[in-house]
From TrEMBL, chain A:
The lineage of its organism: Bacteria, Pseudomonadati, Pseudomonadota, Alphaproteobacteria, Rhodobacterales. Residues 717-835 form the ABC3 transporter permease C-terminal domain. The chain crosses the membrane at residues 266-289, 301-334, 365-389, 410-432, 438-462, 483-503, 714-736, 764-797, 809-831. It is found in: Cell membrane. One of its GO terms (cellular component) is plasma membrane. This is ABC transporter permease. Keywords: Cell membrane, Membrane, Transmembrane, Transmembrane helix. It comes from the Bacteria.
From TrEMBL, chain B:
Keywords: Signal. This is Iron ABC transporter permease. InterPro entries: AttH-like_dom_sf, AttH_dom, TAT_signal. It comes from Thermohalobaculum xanthum. Residues 1-25 form the signal peptide.
UniProtKB/TrEMBL annotation, chain C:
It comes from the Bacteria. InterPro entries: AAA+_ATPase, ABC_transporter-like_ATP-bd, ABC_transporter-like_CS, ABC_transpr_LolD-like, MacB-like_ATP-bd, P-loop_NTPase. This is ABC transporter ATP-binding protein. PANTHER family: IMPORT ATP-BINDING PROTEIN, TRANSPORTER, PUTATIVE-RELATED. Residues 2-217 form the ABC transporter domain. One of its GO terms (cellular component) is plasma membrane. SUPFAM superfamilies: P-loop containing nucleoside triphosphate hydrolases (SSF52540). It comes from Thermohalobaculum xanthum. Keywords: ATP-binding, Nucleotide-binding, Transport. One of its GO terms (molecular function) is ATP binding. The keyword Protease does not apply.
Amino acid sequence: MTAPAPPSPVPADAPAGGIRAGGGLWVLLVLLSHWRRSPGQLATLVLGLVVATALWSGVEALNEQARASYDRAARAFQGAGVPALVASEGGDLDQSLFGVLRRAGWPVSPVIEGRVRIAGEPFRLVGFEPLSLPAGSGLSALGGGGADGGGEGEAFTNFVLPAGRTLIAPETMARLGAAEGDRIATTEGRALPPLLRSDQIAPGLIATDIGFAQVLLGREGKVSRFLLGPGEGAPLAEVTDVALRRVAPTGDDDMERLTASFHLNLTAFGFLAFLVGLFIVHSAIGLALEQRLAMFRTLRACGVSALGLTGALLAELMVLAAAAGLAGVAAGWLIAQALLPDVAATLRGLYGAEVSSVLALGPGWWLSGLGISLAGALAAAGAGLLRVHRLPVLESAAPRAWEAVSRRRIAMLGVAAAGLLALAGALAAWAAQLETAFAAMGCLLLGAALALPAVAGRALIVAESLSRGPVMQWFWADTRQQLPALSLALMALLLALGVNIGVGTMVGSFRETFTGWLDGRLAAEVYLRPGSEAERQRMHDWLAARPEVGAVLPSRAEETRIAGWPVELQGFTPHPTYRQNWPMMAILQDGWDRVAAGTAALVSEQLARRTGLAPGDPLTVPTPGGDWRLTVAGVYPDYGNPKGQLRVAVAELERRWPGAALASTAVRADPDAVPALLAALAEGTGMDPANMIDQAALKRESTAIFERTFTVTAALNTLTLGVAAAALLTSLMTLATQRLPQLAPLWALGLTRRRLALIEIARMLALAAMTALAAIPLGIAVAWILVAVVNVAAFGWRLPLHLFPGEWAALAALALAAAFLAALAPVLRLARTPPARLLRIFADER
Amino acid sequence: MNAERRHVLKALAACAALAPLRAAAQGFAGLGAEAGGFAPVLPSTRLVFPADHGPHPDFRIEWWYVTAVLTGTEGAEAGVQWTLFRISLAPPGEGGSGWQARQLWMAHAGLTTAESHHHHQLYARAGVGQAGVTADPLHAFIDDWQLVETAAPASGAPASALGPLRMAARGGDFAYDLALTTERGVALQGIDGYSVKSERGQASHYYSQPFFEVSGWIAPGGQRRAVTGRAWMDREWSSQPLDADQSGWDWFSLHLPGDEKLMVYRLRHDTGPAYVTGNWIAPDGSSTRLDPGAVEVDALGEAEVAGRRLPVRWRIAIPARGLEIETAPLNPQSWMATDFAYWEGPVRATGTHPARGYLEMTGY
Amino acid sequence: MLSVTSLVKSYPTPQGRLEVLRGADLDVAAGECVALTGESGSGKSTLLHLIAGLDAADDGEITIGGTPLRGLDDRGRARLRREHVGLVFQQFNLIPSLRVGANLAFQARIARRHDPQWEAMLADRLGIAALLDRYPDQISGGQQQRVAIGRALAARPPLILADEPTGNLDEATSEEVVRVIRDLVRESGAACLMVTHSTHLAGMLDRRLHLTGGHIA
């Protein structure tokens, strides 16, 4: 038999490059063939990537949705984007002023504004006049290309003449489950004009021609304010006797600024979840590389260059990351979809920000999700790939001694952990910015995770030295040997548990504090919001004559700026109600008296922290009539208020700001008489019941808002915990095959498979219990950073820390259950392995 | 004018289907329909004053239209336009007051000199005091534009005579404030104020007050200049739309020598010859209709205006009266770039009857 | 085909530099199967690895088919291994996740010399034709080494380097494996250098070189 002549040696013109496309693909296929044999590992890797991407992109989706909503709201018609003229003394203006102002050359456009309830939910109704509407008000057409086809002129006629049209954002329409052309009735029983979809209307707002809105709001002939176009007419004083005040438009970026902390919070939790996911990815990739070292050497020996091999591994990683990323982004979309209603409700309740509850995400979001998956995979695999690239071809192809290498690594990790923890402490101590606070949190978590193997190793050595009997000693020693392989899964579990405990503690602390705080803050039985001075007077007169009313405590509000920061100025009636109930953090001995005398003010915690004010400090408030010099009488907590607040005696406020807006009036009354009192008040004064609220309802509303604030955090938490459990499960499943050779000698020495199985379960439970135990101090540290550092930086208030050992126990039990479940599958496999196979494994082990 | 606002107003312009201004405005709200629920224009109707100076809300469309040819103290010529349109959004019926009023007001003001042309438009809802017209005294207003009788007519003046008027308007870059006076009565156009717009019978009620003496100031580009001159007021209302094939019109109002006045219009048809008619008004206000065929109106020279070609020089001949003149614009660029865009500006006529007056051209 | 001249190689050790090769010379002609013997630690494997381009010599010259190794970078050396060298190790070094057939064809594929007919013939000659659909862990050690030999030959390299290919095999199987290598190398016209510590197996080959004191004797 003659073989063909061997090919000539390396030709002179041989390209320096490695394998050409066909060969490269082969290398990639060979690499991928590994996963078919280790589906568990593949599952871990993909799961990690999917979860990391899903949580990250889910949170990003929420943020992006909110940002898009703010942007749109800033651009959309709100009726507030341009300056306006309002009644100096508050309340409505007479419509006849419209013609008067227009004829005097003032480019005004009338707007009436109010709330209507639809299906019990309040909506802002804006009635405007399309012809005179100034530019910049955000409305450029009367229809969004909806049902009113035909000419745009027809759209105008349809809008202003009966039955009119109700402009409504698509999201709002979807929320109401209504369709274009529907005539929805308000809770008061008035039918809105037929709905017309408009993309230019902010979500949560409905708009009609002013004529219809006046009727719907029961304010015929009234105008809330006149929007001002560019230019001015004759001096106002010459035009009308009505006192008018010019108000600046609401800043466009206000909402974005106010909600920034909330979104940063979300982002941070998303990032944390992403990190936990990456832990899993890192562990899966590391294991996969480790297990394939022999294969890599063979490939190199067969003529695959180091670069070619690394390239193929990179390609493999990218293929997996892209597939997992796609799934992750899709899952992220689902997560966002599920969480959006709560996020939207929180933003609405806390900041009054309307966020569309219909998820609309652009290709940018999908791509960035995919990108983060690829980048995450790369980050998690980078070190491993580098190691493969530098892998000496000649080193013994026998699997590396896992433990020896890892011991060194554990020691290094211990050092890194100590450094990180020290950094976390330093950052937390000096954190003033939210970013620093989260950096401290990151260092703490990472440090704790990295310290886990060292700490657990120590604990196991101690356990080993304390235990008696060969089996127990073997148990601890073997557990210690298992530690490196399991450590990443355990780290993930530790992080998830720690964050869970931390966030749970924060939420619990908040709830505990908030409930007590609300009790003190809402001491009056009834709160009323008069719409105008006239109504206020009517209401006061009426209440004064009622025997069941103990005290009527009116208040006024004004906005000012202190140190460049927007501050609410609240004028309240000095009354024992406040002195006895108002929760204070610190107050001068004669503080209340000095406030009543008009020489001092109470400042909110946010304002105090921001400006460094403390009781006794001087404080200057700019007023229209010059500076008002005050002393800080005390500092009170003002949870949840994005702005600073300053409380002064209402009489003093009125004196300095004659046009100060009416705020709520607190009424002390016999609690039992409240329902009857409110009914009689509505009847007696014609006051809208929507503007009356009793203490219980107000507390209910406030609590609901705050509960929802943490819904998303809690949900992300639960997801993270689930992920950690899943990681533990897959890690164990991967290890199960490797375990058999280690267990076989024991079986040969006379331990029954049943006993071996029990030992395996006990081992997992021991490891999980140790992790859970370690998670408790970590959780407390996380909680402390949250309430004492993050909250202060993000919201300006600090919470007292309360501890909830019951919750820790529940979480520990959950962790043990997860560990039990995770250990069960491999153990069952062990128990079912026929003795013959165990024997062969034993024999094969040389 | 900003883009957003313009969009809303465009919507209104679309109502009128972007057809020639005066003509098309008659077709507003219910294109193609006959009077369609609105009051019909009948030859038997006799105009009554001062009531007919006021609005006729039962008719679909109506206007108060004043043009003035002016001369400054240094001899510079100028022209001014002040127009208020009333447009019905829906046929008359129950209700319709306040915000639900069915009337829409629209106004155009123009100021033309040899160097510049300025214009502005306004819109307003009826029913809320932003715009409106009363007959006695005449008070037409929209925002701070007005055409208002500042005193009662002289005693012994005809019933149709108006007292002294103040006419004022302003836009972004111009303003004017003029006093208009005459003791004479109005001149009825067409036959007794019944003005036929085509051979198919479309018509309007139409009268004019062409005898105003004017003084006051104009401010093109901010600088006030004292002016004097003559003004011509047109009042017209109708319900019937024009024919679909009437593509636009060319309308002249000329102050002839000897205090005679000439109004001529040429309604162009897509198919067939234009419908050309007018009225010859004697100094005593008596008005004679010029039957179709009696007037010749021919375009002489075109100019490029606002991206299109328009005939800005014309020849008018009325052989029976020995009139043969040619008109030339003060400023060929007298383009009203309003939502309904058209050409309107002062012209000077030379020939047998040297004259000054106004030309309006729509549908180009 | 293979020419080694004055090859020098030393390794740093805690006791100082260990000079493994001190000017080794050897030549292997095409179609020739040469045994390389020597004491444990005499540098046999080192020599082989240097020839395979897995490691770099301190001095001296290696040429394969006239191409000097010196001056080739990692990619060039990888290309050389891929296309001109077939390596057989003591550990069989099969890819556990690939079936026997795919393992056999692997190097030929990445060298773009995949020839199913030739591979089928090799499988036949190596007695593994019935095992092609199995995974490496489902066949015996001797069978695995036959697959590794097949893999080295499948790409038709002009040079086969075998490093104790029978080290993990029993005596009877070893003889059989060496015979197969020898026969197939002869038939394909390639050159072969086989490291072995067994004088018996060395005697089965065409020529025997002995490495001692860093020199070829």
